């Protein structure tokens, strides 16, 4: 399916691995120039090599987005290299799980600093350029922002805030011609799932396969997501084919979230 994204520029945060890596590769496959942003420069350079080997164009910007100044610097580097910005995908950030009574103020501060405030700053810095190109901002939250879990108080709060931020920016976007959307992903086949399976196996004294199957049963889904599925969906959302979609917060979780 031709999405009309070729020669436009996308910026993907958290692009060194997992969902971010898959998103960057898929957008490059659609012919977009891709700016890769994450803390791990070596891993991003590996993604860059994959993109360039397939005939694409990528720029690596190593950055800790919890640092306030970095967002504007990254956007400036993007415009200097490519001249415009059409799509921003705010995907960076992981939060600490744990007992609410054991989580420190620092844990809460760290949880919001990268994923939420990083997204706020990136959106604010990118806005004039995305507005000029009549483009799109897509925020990646998580299903924990829809259904609470005792051990995921920080992550759930951050993801819920991402959803509300998306609605607020979409309201502004109607006026400015910027579409703002969010996706709450469920569990995907990434390094994070591998770590989660290992922890579950050790905690319950079962094999990795038994742990994997148990998590599936607990979530009530047939399988976990594949990163490329989310990446393809993001390309579709960014295209003009669905430009009436504005302010939507979409669950992509295999049916895990049974709520309205």
What is the structure about, briefly put?
By secondary structure, the protein is of the alpha/beta class.
Task: Outline the secondary-structure elements.
Layout: E1 9-13, H1 18-29, E2 33-38, H2 41-53, E3 58-62, H3 70-82, E4 87-90, H4 105-133, E5 136-140, H5 153-176, E6 179-185, H6 191-204, H7 208-219, H8 227-238, E7 249-252
Parallel strand pairs: 1-2, 1-4, 2-3, 4-5, 5-6, 6-7
Helix pairs in contact: 1-2, 1-8, 3-4, 4-5, 6-7
- Please, what is the CATH homologous superfamily? NAD(P)-binding Rossmann-like Domain
Number of helices, where a helix is a run of at least 4 consecutive DSSP H or I residues: 8
CATH topology: Rossmann fold
Strand content: 5-15%
The whole-angstrom Rg is 18 Å
Q: Percentage of helical residues?
A: 40-55%
Outline the low-pLDDT stretches: none
What would you call the structural class?
Answer: alpha/beta
Outline: globular
Number of domains: 1
CATH architectural designation:
3-Layer(aba) Sandwich
Distance between the termini: 31 Å
Strand order of the largest sheet: 3-2-1-4-5-6-7
The tally of strands reads: 7
Element pattern in H and E: EHEHEHEHEHEHHHE
CATH class term = Alpha Beta
> How is the main sheet built?
7 strands, parallel
Provide mean pLDDT, rounded.
97
Describe what this molecule looks like in 3D.
The protein is 50% helix and 14% strand. The chain has 260 residues and is an alpha/beta fold. Strand 2, helix 2 and strand 3 (58-62) form a beta-alpha-beta unit. The radius of gyration is 18 Å and the shape is globular. The two termini are 31 Å apart. The model has no long low-confidence stretch (mean pLDDT 97).
């Amino acid at each position: 399916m031709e999405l009309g994204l070729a020669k436009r520029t996308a910026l993907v945060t958290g692009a060194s691995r997992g969902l971010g890596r898959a998103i960057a590769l898929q957008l490059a496959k659609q012919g977009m120039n891709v700016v890769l942003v994450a803390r791990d420069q070596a891993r991003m350079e590996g993604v860059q090599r994959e993109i360039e080997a397939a005939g694409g164009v990528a720029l690596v910007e190593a950055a800790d987005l919890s640092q306030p100044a970095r967002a504007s610097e990254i956007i400036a580097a993007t415009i200097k290299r490519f001249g415009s910005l059409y799509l921003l995908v705010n995907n960076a950030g992981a939060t600490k799980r744990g007992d609410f009574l054991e989580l420190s103020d620092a844990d809460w501060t760290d949880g919001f600093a990268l994923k939420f405030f990083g997204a706020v700053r990136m959106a604010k810095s990118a806005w004039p350029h995305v507005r000029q190109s009549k483009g799109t901002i897509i925020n990646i939250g998580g299903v924990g922002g829809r259904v609470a879990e005792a051990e995921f108080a920080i992550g759930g709060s951050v993801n819920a805030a991402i959803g509300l931020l998306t609605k607020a920016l979409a309201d502004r976007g109607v006026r400015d011609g910027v579409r703002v959307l969010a996706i709450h992903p469920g569990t995907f086949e990434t390094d994070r799932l591998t770590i989660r399976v290992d922890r579950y196996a050790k905690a319950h004294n079962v094999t990795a396969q038994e742990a994997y199957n148990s998590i599936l049963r607990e979530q009530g889904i047939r399988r976990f997501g594949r990163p490329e599925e989310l990446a393809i969906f993001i390309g579709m959302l960014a295209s003009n084919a669905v430009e009436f979609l504005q302010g939507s917060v979409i669950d992509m979780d295999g049916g895990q979230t049974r709520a309205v």
